[in-house]
Automatic annotation (TrEMBL):
SUPFAM superfamilies: ISP domain. Residues 4-100 form the Rieske domain. It comes from the Bacteria. Pfam families: Rieske. InterPro entries: Rieske_2Fe-2S, Rieske_2Fe-2S_sf. It comes from Microbacterium sediminicola. Gene3D superfamilies: Rieske [2Fe-2S] iron-sulphur domain (2.102.10.10). PANTHER family: 3-PHENYLPROPIONATE_CINNAMIC ACID DIOXYGENASE FERREDOXIN SUBUNIT, FERREDOXIN-RELATED. Keywords: 2Fe-2S, Iron, Iron-sulfur, Metal-binding. Coiled coil: none annotated. This is Non-heme iron oxygenase ferredoxin subunit. CDD domains: Rieske_RO_ferredoxin.
Length: 109
């Protein structure tokens, strides 16, 4: 599988998340306060909640329902009640296009 265009950079607002679905995989695409673009699994591992509806602060995305914050760099939850990580996907920027391949996760160990 190859990377798929999911949005343009201009569609991403700073410190917000955008939910996209690529080949059946829900992904939260985030532009952090530094302008860096991240892509993590969109479903909170504590409950079936879209993380893209949550709050971006620094390099974290917080689930609006129960408050678990996930690292945009590693996918690991930084506080309870979530204790399982979400996948982190490699992001490629090509001009103004944001590309993600849901079959390629970042090695964050």
């Amino acid at each position: 599988m190859s990377a798929t265009r999911v949005c343009s950079l201009s569609e991403l607002e700073q410190d917000t998340a955008l939910r996209v679905v690529v080949d059946g995989t829900a992904i939260a695409v985030v532009k952090d306060s530094e302008g860096e673009v991240h892509a993590i699994g969109d479903t909170c591992t504590h409950g079936d909640i879209s993380l893209a509806e949550g709050f971006v602060e620094g390099e974290t995305l917080e689930c609006w329902a129960h408050g678990s914050a996930f690292s945009l760099l590693t996918g690991k939850p930084l506080n309870l009640p979530a204790y399982e990580p979400v996948p982190v996907f490699a992001v490629t920027i090509d001009g103004d296009d944001v590309l993600i391949d849901p079959a390629v996760t970042k090695d964050v160990n």
